[in-house]
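Listing 4. Sequential folding, example run.
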Amino acid sequence: MRIRAIMTPVSKLTILSPTDSAEKALELIEAKGFLSLPVAEERRFIGFLSKQFIYETYFKETQLDFNDFLKRPVAHFIHNRVACVNSNLLVEEAADIFFNNKVRFLPVVNELGEFIGILTQKSLFGVITKVYGLKDPKLSILTDDFKGTLAKITEIISKNGGNITNIALFDTEVMGIQEISVRITGQDIHVIAKKLEERGFKIREIVEGIVD
């Protein structure tokens, strides 16, 4: 999946101009309940502005008149510039960027470099949750032969009324043992677990589904 499918488009964003006053920026940030807002000009992403940085700057400079201080333009407070990403970026690539960088959001641009939206951590984690079937019941199965085991597991689950929503493989790093995590719907997870155990599979853990 490409991030363009889950990004928040510019049309739904509150965007600051570099010529806006810090006072206006604070009013918008507080009114919207955000931690920060993107700053752009003529479809070009410039950076972002946070309420915290405005106040930090004020106290560092020991301004006597806060009202005069707030008349400064937003351009004076833009910081921690975030590198833009292309809308064709894969979701998993975006996850890696979030993991390795302390950023609240990623600015998204098109092929022309025009600012077209942002990708938030919330949107990213939401789609990852769906992909991994986080709310579905899960079985964890231990094996030392993933290739030979997977086909048998899926066959048993299917024959006993189970629908697989996600399969993930984890290396336990202990004597070549691997853990197969299987998310299943359609049949009681305990029934499936019993059928697998009857065929000699070692069930490490059974996790019930999450009900909203």
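-- end of first protein; second protein begins --
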Amino acid sequence: MAETLPIVGITMGDPAGNGPEITVKALSNSSLYQRCRPIVVGDAKMLEQAKHFVGHPEISINPVSSVSEAKFEAGTIDVYHMDLVSDVKAFKLGEVSAEGGNAAFQSVKKVIELAMAGEVDATVTNALNKEAMNLALTPKGMHFDGHTEIYATYTGTKKYAMMLAHHDFRVVHVSTHCSLREACDRVKKDRVLEVIELGNQACLDLGIEKPRIAVAGLNPHCGEHGLFGTEEQTEIGPAIEAARAEGIDAIGPCPPDSVFSEMNGGWYDMTVAMYHDQGHIPTKLLGFVYDREKQGWKAVEGVNVTLGLPIIRTSVDHGTGFALAGKGTSNELSLVNAIDYALRMASGRASKK
């Protein structure tokens, strides 16, 4: 019955980007309403505008002030309306602005509140622009690096990590948004062990009974026994041994130049990457497919998941698409993937309860 389907809160992202457009595209598929009850959090006026950009004028936008008012019917997009954009006609698409940054931030903050209150079963975020968001927040004495830090702050979470996924290709990161020099310094036994544990739990939440977790090395050839670096011996190896002592099937340290190909071949359920680009590059190489002949993106797939939270948060694995805003050509596959992952995690958590 529809009343038992999970409720998914979806943020609109930065209104100057393509978030509203890909949201309308994703929710125009009636089959989605057979699997969940979606509600967009943001500004209904931006969704009203976006439906014309993407060629779906028949879709009805239903502004609500509470989740209980939502219809959850195919052909209608329910929007938890926060009136975040003062004048839609004057608002400039494709440009960084404090108004757009504030709208994106307030949408995220509200969807977190709804999830923490149990009003939605999972949250899915469209992209925000970090510069725009901090233009709005800095005068208020606030700063966030991105979604992950916002979620950690407003859920009171201390131990968390970013996971990227392209179907069954999954990567979780020891560090993300910091310099490469600092990232090397963050490769410590306790943090590596923490991320292995978070990755293992995520696999269990996804219904994988006996996860196999590969752990990448930091240095070329995993340091060649100290010739090219010692982190594998002093930090990563000991973390793997500690994880195995907990009953986790952790494998490694594995050479970073081959471990992702091995996971793509089905050897592992997840790989622990030591820093941002080590994990992002192979995942996006698989998910982002450019058509040379048509000179356009054939697929932009992938999901960003924050692990360790008391609530479920998945996200698109791409930016705000400022250059594409208003054109109606943006690809919604990553958002659809994010919704699917959120539903899978919600089902896994519900079965445990």
